[in-house]
Amino acid sequence: METLLQVDHLTIGYPEEAGMDKVVRDISFEVYENEILGVVGESGSGKSQTSLAVMGLLSEEAQILSGTMSFMGQELVGLDEKSRSRIQGNTMSMIFQEPMTCLNPVMKIGKQVGESLKLHTDLHKGQIREKVLESMRSVGLNDVEALCEKYPHELSGGMRQRVMIAQAFICSPRLLIADEPTTALDVIVQAQILKLLKQLHKKNGTSILFISHDLNVIKEICDRVIVMYQGEIVEGGSTQEVLFHPKHDYTRHLVASMPGNPEPLKEKKEILQIRNMNIYYEERSRKLFAKQGRQHVVKDLNLTVYEGELLGIVGESGSGKSTLAKAIVGLNKDYDGQMILPEGTRPQMVFQDPFGSLNPARKIGWILSEPLRLRGIRDKKERKRLVSMYLKEVGLEESFAGRYARELSGGQRQRVSIVMALMMDSGILVADEPVSALDVTVQSQILDLLLDIHRRENLTILFISHDMNIVRHICHRVAVLYLGEIVELGDVESIYKNPTHPYTKRLIRASMGGMEEE
């Protein structure tokens, strides 16, 4: 097979006081014509730094210390800005994990999709418009004339990702670099995006460098895979060979990174009852914060949760699961119906993005002392002792109390978020997508931690997720939400093996790697 991209002995470093921090160490690999190569590894393994180096998007501080990168016979290392601009967005394109941070928030969609054509072709305005509409239709977007006049914030996450793909493919690139393009999406939209990428790959013959921490996604879409660990490539080969017959200890660890099942419930004692609940929210315009109307999100919902239970609540984006979570913890009080809890109990929340829920201006010790103050613990030394005790309980050292949230990794911040919830001693934890933003090994650690706390403290956990695989492995029962209604509820294994509702079947098929039909 003809080589499209050749990387030889590449080393990337960042200068520090103690010397050079080498984030990529002497790696070599190639991407062939018309193939999809997967790059897998946890956060900090060097996979994203490698892709940014190939694309010419490394930060100013980064230094390529050694090695070469050749694309279509042209050396990329040391390439001048003018020559690089001829490649970027033309013969080589990139799509990212979160399109909202990559799309210009004040530029209309149509103009953004057509930007590369304006830079790299001599097409006139009318021809560019036609190409934009054609490219947007090719990625499964509807009513594209109207979409061209919208701004990114007016689109759903899946639609924004399709826009980025349309933008990336509009110049028919030879190589597409996809850096975690489906991580932030629910399981059904994720399956649709993977199917779309495979279709465009097959139709256009575009090679794809696909970066992910999700082995299920890698298995679904990639021909070959390389495994990165601490800046080095530790294993490579066909996807089947690497994932089903791993040779390196780290690869074996990645493949085995799935939590064990929870212990069965000993008795069914009701702790939370929801009766005929309807939940609403007042939709507002993001531009002017004007009221747009009261939306009926969750409809006539009935649910009983038992003490010590791990209950999974699954559904795609917009199904109502996060709205339900906010009502349970008291963040949304616009509902009718009944919610019956033991007196004095207030369920606590663990959010998907702990960085957004931790005060950036305060140290961790201060943040964790707040729930203790609310519980009426006035003695400062006692609060400090409890903070240290709880930090150790989630595997963090006492010194973390003196750090800010920005100084912690994603997994460490999520552990702090779990501590905050535990400190209120409510007995009920609502975990809203608590691991979806974490890489596979950290995800496994956080899930194991939740299971361990659940066992030790008989904690009731409502685990909200779009990932049926995770729910199957950690929950006793699962409630499937679709358009604000519970369409299926029961034992996790029974529903996974014998789903009755068409929507549940779609969710399970998507989670098992089945390509979701458009």
Characterization of the model:
With 518 residues, this protein is an alpha/beta fold. It has a domain at 353-425. 37% of the residues lie in helices and 27% in strands. The protein has 21 helices and 19 strands. It has helices at residues 47-55, 81-87, 99-102, 109-113, 115-120, 125-138, 144-147, 157-169, 187-204, 215-221, 239-244, 249-256, 321-329, 354-357, 364-374, 380-393, 410-423, 440-457, 468-474, 492-497, 502-511, and strands at residues 3-16, 19-32, 36-40, 63-71, 74-75, 92-95, 175-179, 207-212, 224-229, 232-238, 270-284, 291-306, 310-314, 335-340, 348-350, 428-432, 460-465, 477-482, 485-491. The strands form four sheets. The protein has a six-stranded mixed sheet, sandwiched between helices. The chain has a six-stranded mixed sheet with strand order 15-16-17-13-18-19, sandwiched between helices. Strand 4 (63-71) and strand 5 (74-75) form a beta hairpin. The radius of gyration is 24 Å and the shape is globular. The two termini are 32 Å apart. 44% of the residues are buried. The model has no long low-confidence stretch (mean pLDDT 88).
Show the helix and strand layout:
Elements: E1 3-16, E2 19-32, E3 36-40, H1 47-55, E4 63-71, E5 74-75, H2 81-87, E6 92-95, H3 99-102, H4 109-113, H5 115-120, H6 125-138, H7 144-147, H8 157-169, E7 175-179, H9 187-204, E8 207-212, H10 215-221, E9 224-229, E10 232-238, H11 239-244, H12 249-256, E11 270-284, E12 291-306, E13 310-314, H13 321-329, E14 335-340, E15 348-350, H14 354-357, H15 364-374, H16 380-393, H17 410-423, E16 428-432, H18 440-457, E17 460-465, H19 468-474, E18 477-482, E19 485-491, H20 492-497, H21 502-511
Parallel strand pairs: 3-8, 3-9, 6-7, 7-8, 13-17, 13-18, 15-16, 16-17
Antiparallel strand pairs: 1-2, 1-4, 4-5, 9-10, 11-12, 11-14, 18-19
